[in-house]
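Could someone model protoporphyrin IX containing FE with this protein?
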Amino acid sequence: MDEANKQVTEKSQEGEKPRDVQDRSSISRRDLLKLAGAGGVGLLLGSVGVGGVWAGTAKLAAPTASTASNADPKQVIPFYDAHQAGIVTSAQDFICFAAFDLTTVKLSEVKDLFRRWTEAAAKMTAGQPVGGEEDQQSMPPADTGEAAGLHPCRTTITFGVGPSMFDARFGLGAKRPEALADLPRFGGDSLRPEWCGGDIGVQVCADDLQVAFHALRNLTRLARGVAVLRWTQEGFQRTGGSGPAGETPRNLLGFKDGTGNPDIHDKQAMNDIVWVQPSKQPAWMSGGSYMVVRRIRMRIEVWDRSTLSDQEATFGRYRSSGAPLGAKNEFDPLALDAKNEAGQPLIPLTAHSRLAHGEQPAEKVLRRSYSYSSGIDRQTGQLDAGLLFICYQRDPRTQFVPIQQRLAKRDKLNEYIVHVGSAQFACFPGARQGGYIGEGLFE
Amino acid sequence: MDEANKQVTEKSQEGEKPRDVQDRSSISRRDLLKLAGAGGVGLLLGSVGVGGVWAGTAKLAAPTASTASNADPKQVIPFYDAHQAGIVTSAQDFICFAAFDLTTVKLSEVKDLFRRWTEAAAKMTAGQPVGGEEDQQSMPPADTGEAAGLHPCRTTITFGVGPSMFDARFGLGAKRPEALADLPRFGGDSLRPEWCGGDIGVQVCADDLQVAFHALRNLTRLARGVAVLRWTQEGFQRTGGSGPAGETPRNLLGFKDGTGNPDIHDKQAMNDIVWVQPSKQPAWMSGGSYMVVRRIRMRIEVWDRSTLSDQEATFGRYRSSGAPLGAKNEFDPLALDAKNEAGQPLIPLTAHSRLAHGEQPAEKVLRRSYSYSSGIDRQTGQLDAGLLFICYQRDPRTQFVPIQQRLAKRDKLNEYIVHVGSAQFACFPGARQGGYIGEGLFE
Ligand code: HEM
Ligand code: HEM
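Reply:
Sure, complex below.
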């Protein structure tokens, strides 16, 4: 392996290797370009070369090679880590999200569940079946088998607990984080109980939908007698290799989605925005993060009748380039003060980007949303498709909530969307080997 | 381009290039291996090389390079062809299936719809947006935009009409094919109207779910005022690159699914099994095929409690290798007469493979199924996941129906599945450039 090649491989093992140019942390981008110019050919050859030996390392797409798949299906994102994976991890192609309700009232059984889940999650994210011993003919197989032979596909499994976990059942009331306050009702909400809440939230993401499904199904199976599914939602974005490497994916309204997100490679920003700091209470959440999930249906048929001007005014960005109105490039800053000849703001006062951007840096969230499409809504006869909005933050009360309050009140996008599901979860810090996820809360 | 390389490229443009080793047509397999040995390195280099110029040609994965993605996202499967694409096309990773009902009673409007659909399908399968002219600010964009910048991803769009198309509304009654008889009721069916029937069936497949969704959505939009969605179902299999190239994908019961399928590269077999022959009536179906769709829910929780022996007896195959019971390799023939020491058949009389295999070669069908996972069934509180079973044949009355009658009666698999949806469609022959899909029926 030549030196440059090795360097990139090592980086990729941190599990944060950018597979797309949402990575704007210019150093690794530039490294890549340099490599593509100089040793790039060797790099490509090596990465697709005589199979197997590179297991667990990233295959890098040279930026010029748009046919190459962007992420190596063999890449493993380590499960045991200071933080849980799946939060500042560059978004995989698919999500299987699930909310569970506990059917036990014994805390000891909840602990056991999280111990089993931790062990299984560590295996499945490494591409191994749960269980492990040889299957016996006279027993149900330990693993359900549909991912046999498939690669890890950057699977991450992220666990959290909802506000209901702290009700009378388990005696955990005193440990409830203040930040996990009930979300207020937002104007326009049309929440349906079948897509709300849950004692436990589990976000499974992977670059392969079958691999993600397999993980969630095996977790569900391990919960038998202790917890049942309350609601689930699958989601997708365009597959890694299906577009030019590094383009921001588009949502189902046809706009690039994720441009204004903070940079996941900026550790300082992630500490400021995402990770609960050690100075905060409760201690068991230190190094964790709060996840807010909103199932947001799009009124696709209405949107599809609106003019391009209207659509661009709605987001305050151009559809084609993703650039802010009045600017040229996707990542140009929002010129919130700029006016047109008539003295009107270039980016309308009701534009989604303007309202979501806010004025306070402390209000930022890290979005990690997926598109969904779930057949036809029986109530309306229209496509049930939209956005499974997910964001992570240190404190929803000062981040998601004020943003969403502004959006609910004034966002022009409200003509085209309706929030039908909602949940939030306190996502634990990571587990160390030998420990288990949730240990800090349950012990 | 060297000679060997060129040869493979040309083959791949037929749109039938095997992306996995379900292709057991040994010639192309051997070609590939030869190439990988000799010119393989150059091949790989070329195929990921200085982007863009090779648009529309296949990137070939060397069989040894299991990290490589199996299909080139830039590959276009030609829309205009003697047969419709998406039938004997090696299965893509995703499906968006939709059944439409016509809201018009004017045949002229139906014709116009199919003309618009043909034009749009030709564009979208080539990776182009519908419409085409520059978007105007004061108009709704012609294309909904969420696939902008994405590759064609081997998109196919396959159209058919259901039995209801021939009722009193359009005066087409006399043209109804006898082969499109109503399906009989099968024992155990638990069909729900929301997953049954439809005047028109559209099967969109692609190696990217967002690309497939985009195509179906734009077709739906083009149908406005003429047809509405009746039901839809998304489905998946493991993504091309997520497992060793060429392995038969597994269904959600963990078994390899597709082993016993006829070889799509065997033209004679496809004529015998799939394509309606010129000698048959009606003439407008010559070169077409009949599609049967069954939405089959799996009782996953029950399955997961059954022993490995039970599971293998259910299919008559080993879970791990996919080989028939008593045999060694996946593609070994089913030894239907073999007995164990106790004199019992090795492959039980109620095994799915045995019953589905049948005794008459003329009964074979070409299966093209996908796994689905659609959240939780409100009626049972369990996962709504299973198989979107799709098969193609010359005549369902003598192919799907007798097989399914045997299965419904005796299949051990019935303990673990329930058919909840059903539809069938007469899928037209292909269209030539300048013509439109369905022309033979409507003109
Ligand atoms: C279906 C619903 C939604 C859609 C389609 C949508 C789409 C978009 C788009 C296209 C952008 C511009 C590109 C970008 O910066 O990513 C954007 C920005 C943003 N959205 Fe949304 N969004 C939705 C809901 C929400 C919700 C519920 C929140 C609540 C917190 C939110 C927060 C944000 C933020 C913080 C930004 C970045 C603003 C900036 O700082 O530039 N979005 N959204
Ligand atoms: C959820 C429902 C079903 C599942 C999970 C399932 C699964 C399987 C599996 C694992 C095999 C063995 C591997 C292979 O040859 O592909 C198989 C074979 C087969 N199945 Fe199914 N199947 C289902 C429903 C059906 C239905 C409704 C039909 C109706 C026509 C059918 C027809 C066949 C045929 C023709 C074969 C090949 C038999 C042979 O000639 O060897 N299957 N199926």
